[in-house]
């Protein structure tokens, strides 16, 4: 994985003297796909998600991490070293840190993909503050949707929860809070059929060049922002246009862990999420570690993922040391250097016994006449 968890793990592993290889596709990842500014990551200000990932990759590469633009299809953990199968070849490794993340589930309706970053989001904690005193929709009926609605109700003008059934799947306490909240309204038995948007006007000529120019933006493609949605009553089939400034999709996440089925154990209550041992990042298979959203069904934040990536690298480094495994290239280099030093010591002992230069009448032991003249 090439998100905050994977790259943090690579940085820590490289600085520990290991040889981390980051295997990740060029696109994908929640932070990579975040076109708006990242505002909740310490030290980052007025910078987009892709720019954050680019900076992380540059830092990891500076310490020696190597990047492989591939997707992992399967892992063979039946024998050592492990074999990681990608779309084009096989990689052998002593340890694996799984940091492939969890993708948000989407509605797959018209306007949804085009306006991600323009009012369509799957993270109220990340993007809610951008819609201060605005009208927003939350789609979903589980705990995640309830939590998002409560978070948004603190800053938004109004919050409307859209749910396709007549009861919430969420816990009773959360559902009751939503029902009783004065700033939250509920549309039962309703689905979102389409997300509507308007095209942002281009800045006047001469104003487009600024220090805040987003180099990650798609040049030439008009940027659209959410202006409303088309809702459908599932009981009557009637459709209605509703105005809003943002649509938050909260219908769950799917961890990108299908390639590990029958390899590691998963959380029984949270399908797809890797089960870790205690408070560590260790999995049910020695030598395989899990970091970020693949093992986090609660927080799913870039900053918490980065922290767990660092923890996974520390766990992996300790385990490799315990097993007597590590960086073979560095170990071979150290052994070769030790042999050369031993040879030098042997040569010194020989020179102490006999010095042809001194026997010939030289005045400086062990130094040629031409060098003596220069000194």
From TrEMBL:
The keyword Oxidoreductase applies. PROSITE patterns: PYRIDINE_REDOX_2. It holds the Pfam family Pyr_redox_2. InterPro entries: FAD/NAD-bd_sf, FAD/NAD-binding_dom, Ferredoxin-NADP_redctase_2, Pyr_nucl-diS_OxRdtase_2_AS. Keywords: Disulfide bond, FAD, Flavoprotein, Oxidoreductase, Redox-active center. Belongs to the class-II pyridine nucleotide-disulfide oxidoreductase family. This is FAD/NAD(P)-binding domain-containing protein. The lineage of its organism: Eukaryota, Sar, Stramenopiles, Ochrophyta, Bacillariophyta.
